[in-house]
Hints:
Radius of gyration: 21 Å
Strand order of the largest sheet: 2-8-7-6-5-3-4
Shape: globular
Strand content: 5-15%
Bound molecules: pyridoxal-5'-phosphate
Structural class: alpha/beta
CATH superfamily of the largest domain: Type I PLP-dependent aspartate aminotransferase-like (Major domain)
Number of domains: 2
CATH class of the largest domain: Alpha Beta
Number of strands: 12
Helix content: 40-55%
CATH architecture of the largest domain: 3-Layer(aba) Sandwich
Amino acid sequence: MKLSQRITQLTQxxxxxxxxxxxxxxxxxxxxxVTELTIGEHDIRxxxxxxxxxxxxxxxxxxxxxxVPGTELLRETVAxxxxxxxxxxxxxxxxxxxxxGQSALFAAHVAVCDPGDVGLYLDPYYATYPxxxxxxxxxxxxxxxxxxxxxxxxxxxxxxxxxxxxxxxxNSPNNPTGVVYSRQTLEAVAEVCRRRDLWLISDEVYxxxxxDGTHISPRALPDMLxxxxxxxxxxxxxxMTGSRCGWVAGPPDVIxxxxxxxTHTTYGVPGFIQDAAVFALNAGPELENRIAAPFRRRxxxxxxxxxxxxxxxxxxxxxxxxxxxxxxxxxxxxxxxANALLDxxxxxxxxxxxxxxxxxxxxRVAMTIDDDRFAAALRTICCFAAELSSGR
Length: 392
Ligand code: PLP
């Protein structure tokens, strides 16, 4: 039987860029010890206090269908949090609760793109972006950012790509680069969106993980409120990746349509998860800082280790749980280096090429193992790179 173009062309049949990751997992299943610095998941689990609230809520009976837009309390709590953090007046009518940020990304593109419209996204990109845009029926068009610009997007490149485009997807703090977009960058991006009449879809799921600089939500920039959809999530800020709880913040009329979409797709998020999310958000910045602290610590460890050598370059590590390392002096590309590192030292990292072409010759290192093992692995990566470059 024939399948739809939309489903068969989602990833355009190409490699999904996760070859090193799968190989590492295979080695582990065969009993080998592998240091995994690949996926973006905390090495701690959801806080026991959040789990206790989840259990209490479930035992109290919140296991039936929940309100599709999200419970009033969670929508209000998310709205208040956004208002506090950005200064932008936000009410529950601006919020749709979704099963994680991924589902919010999909819903946002369905909301603004008609079939065949162009949705822009930036390279390097979070692995699902092009497939999400295609899944919404749109044409995914990539705009390059450059290592020389520390992967800050340039408005002139976005402008040059925007013929026929209806939306632009950005992500700051950024996965995979760890870069936080500056005010100057975001103001220039916002200006293009206004001039080219683009929707701005702003993925801010790492907004609590900022080590250097300030997170600015472009929804708060002049004349951006009506054209910005913000993607948020409990996954990274509260180590609740498996709970699948996120949101879209946007204009009430758009949210109204997206609620209709949710009724016909996800049918909402379980009530006991939403109650746990309210509890977690009300625990405030203290809990968020505690969850972010290991990455802040490891980023400092990494800066010290990298400062003591001169082969591997570091893209300014300003936020999120990743380091983007420039290994071009070794003469290998990211994929070659990552495979050789796995074979020689049983350390698994993501090749930059897994995230598009802009990060070729780089590797992404997730700071998601305990400090001592992390520091040891990073030292090994630096020594390995130095050996390769001196043998050229
Ligand atoms: N956006 C970015 C940039 C991510 O890195 C991730 C997950 O890694 C997501 C969105 C999706 O997160 P979730 O669906 O768990 O909220």
